[in-house]
Amino acid sequence: MTRKNYLQLKADLKDLASKIRPVKIEYNQSQKEYSLFQNQNGSYRTIVEGYVNPKMDKGYFSDLRQKCIVFMNRINNSLNSKLKMKHDYRHLHIVYCLARGRTMEQIEQKVREGNEPSKQQIKSIKEKYGFDQSDPDPMILEDNLLAIGAL
Question: Do residues 5 and 129 touch, judged by C-beta distance below 8 A?
């Protein structure tokens, strides 16, 4: 891996981390708003039961049902994007650590069954950044070049 690719990997990792934070905040805010909505109007199940009941006002429950659907869509969208970004970040971080000379055992000591990192995704990230296991750590390489006056 060239120094340029290494720095690009590091920059992409930082960029992804900075994008995850607002999505997490959005998700948490959506959950809080939906919780307040439920406290005031009841759960989605209660609202649907009121909507289906012929003795109840359809217009009132229809509006509540629509608001509930909007809240749940917002929560699901932010959850999906948060999980996707976290998944991508994990694999990018693994490749970054491998580039720094760490082993998989050092990077992730305990991995739950079924939660192993995707070898295919790691391989594609390695190919994207030109990672080769036999390459020395880019930081060590730069220090050596500085020591001999090549940089």
Answer: yes
